[in-house]
Amino acid sequence: MGEKYYVDVVSALARQTINRLVIVIILLILLLCGTNAFWFVREQQYEVVETTTQEVTQTAEDGGTNRFVGGDYYGNDTDS
């Protein structure tokens, strides 16, 4: 017969909604992977900068005062 029950209609709509949501989730995952790959390739274009270290020694003659901070020398030798 041509009668459709409410449960059948609702379950059919639910299946369509679930199918649409699955497609949207797959699309979002693919877009996320694509944007991550784009940023990875973009970051690889930059040059790697090598860092240098500098060793500073401290003498106990001046009571342990540090005048060499961040690569700059502060004060002079006559400061007490």
Poorly predicted segments: none
Number of strands: 2
Query: Strand order across the biggest sheet?
Result: 1-2
Sheet having the most strands: 2 strands, antiparallel
Distance between the termini: 106 Å
Reading the helices and strands in chain order gives: HEE
- The whole-number mean of residue pLDDT values reads 80
Strand content: 5-15%
Percent of residues in helices comes to 40-55%
Count of alpha/pi helices: 1
Radius of gyration: 34 Å
Q: What structural class is derived from the secondary structure elements?
A: mainly alpha
User: What global shape is seen?
Assistant: rod-shaped
Summarize the structure.
This protein has 80 residues and is mainly alpha-helical. The chain is 49% helix and 5% strand. It is built from 1 helix and 2 strands.
What does this structure look like?
With 80 residues, the protein is mostly helical. The chain has a two-stranded antiparallel ribbon with strand order 1-2. The model has no long low-confidence stretch (mean pLDDT 80). It contains one helix and two strands. A hairpin with a 2-residue loop joins strand 1 (68-69) and strand 2 (72-73).
Secondary structure blueprint with pairings:
Blueprint: H1 6-44, E1 68-69, E2 72-73
Antiparallel strand pairs: 1-2
